[in-house]
Amino acid sequence: MIEAISLSKSYSGFKAVSELGFRVDDGVMYAFLGPNGAGKTTTIKMLTGILTPDSGDALINGISITKDPVAAKRNCGYLPDVPMLFEKLTGRQYLNFMMDIFEIPAASRRERTEKLIESFELGPHIDSLIESYSLGTKKKIGIVAACCHKPPVLFLDEPTSGLDPQSVRALKDTLKEMTGRGVTVFFSTHILEVAEKICDRVAIIGGGRLVAEGSVAQIRAGLNAPGDGHDDPKSLEDIFLELTARNPVQGESSVPG
Ligand SMILES: Nc1ncnc2c1ncn2[C@@H]1O[C@H](COP(=O)(O)OP(=O)(O)OP(=O)(O)O)[C@@H](O)[C@H]1O
Ligand SMILES: [Mg+2]
Predict the structure, then answer these.
(1) Which molecular-function annotations from GO does this UniProt entry contain (predicted)?
(2) Per-residue confidence (pLDDT) for residue 229, from 0 to 100
């Protein structure tokens, strides 16, 4: 379970995220959508304890990320938007390193990684140095590293970017299998067809504020007032474009990071 409680974050006076609140129940696949610069990555970094919020808090399975960050992080897997890997390790060494951090017993490691390595077709690369990997292969080892310690809550920042169609299918199957086991999956994406196909609920943010939240059907129903002339059900893409046009992202921060 994930609970965001009035999360806010500014970068040198520029408000990137404003009083954001939502709740994601166990076993829910939750798509986090918004235009470039809307505040998705900033939010995910606050939810995972990488960035400290200016105000507000987040609970991961009931544990505060600001008050008890280590205990909260024990419950999390995280794929960053850009690969952050130790490139002088092989893929297998990196997965072992991640499982060391999460204190996964040696006896269960093979069972945890074998199927993931196979699903993402990483077998031919797993004993090569990560620096030799293509961008998509780096993404895939990052996904496996986020999942292999079997976290109850998984955060993925744009997991589909750079993946080929086979890998997108492997990702969708893996995530569905995880939510089926009760894992809470929170992912950002710009690929709205993927989001519409696999998510149970969505949040759409614009300018750091929540503009819509619920199942796609609920959000669609909120937009389609009876007799407004929309006979065809709106796709998630139509909904996204309509809502984000009403709530444009303010000028991007020009403050250097
Ligand atoms: N380190 C930083 N320093 C200054 N401003 C930042 C920093 N990181 C993000 N911002 C600003 O905060 C806002 C939100 O950025 P963020 O990366 O969270 O957006 P996003 O929704 O993830 O966008 P994208 O879809 O492009 O990944 C933007 O205006 C961005 O310029
Ligand atoms: Mg981002």
Answers:
(1) ATP binding; ATP hydrolysis activity
(2) 56
Mean pLDDT in runs of 10 for the chain (257 residues)? 98 96 98 97 98 98 98 97 96 97 94 95 98 98 97 98 96 96 97 93 95 92 64 84 77 48
Whether the CB-CB separation of 130 and 85 falls below 8 Å is answered with: yes
Proximal ligand: closest to the CA of 46: 1
Domain tally for the chain? 1
pLDDT value at residue 228 = 55
Q: Say which ligand is closest to the CA of 16.
A: 1
Strands of the 184-188 sheet, one edge to the other: 76-79, 153-157, 184-188, 29-33, 201-206, 209-214
Residues with Cβ within 8 Å of residue 87, at least 6 apart in sequence = 129, 130, 131
Say what the pLDDT of residue 233 is: 79
> Is 93 within a domain?
yes
Q: What whole-number distance in Å separates Cα of residue 244 and Cα of residue 246?
A: 5
Question: Closest ligand 1 atom, CA of 205?
Answer: 21
The reply to whether ligand 1 has any atom less than 6 angstroms from the CB of 245 is: no
pLDDT of residue 252: 53
Residue position matching structure tokens 């690369």? 125
Is the C-beta atom of 214 inside 6 A of ligand 1?
no
| Ligand 1 nearest atom to the CA of residue 252, by list position | 29
> Looking at the domain assignment, is residue 122 inside a domain?
yes
Closest C-alpha residue for ligand 1 atom 11: 253
The boundaries of the domain holding residue 145 are 76-150
Instruction: Evaluate whether residue 94 is within a structural domain.
Output: yes
Q: How far is the CA of 87 from the centre of ligand 1 (A)?
A: 25
Separation between Cα atoms, residue 234 and residue 257, nearest integer Å: 38
Q: How far is the CA of 40 from the centre of ligand 1 (A)?
A: 8
Q: Is residue 193 part of a domain?
A: no
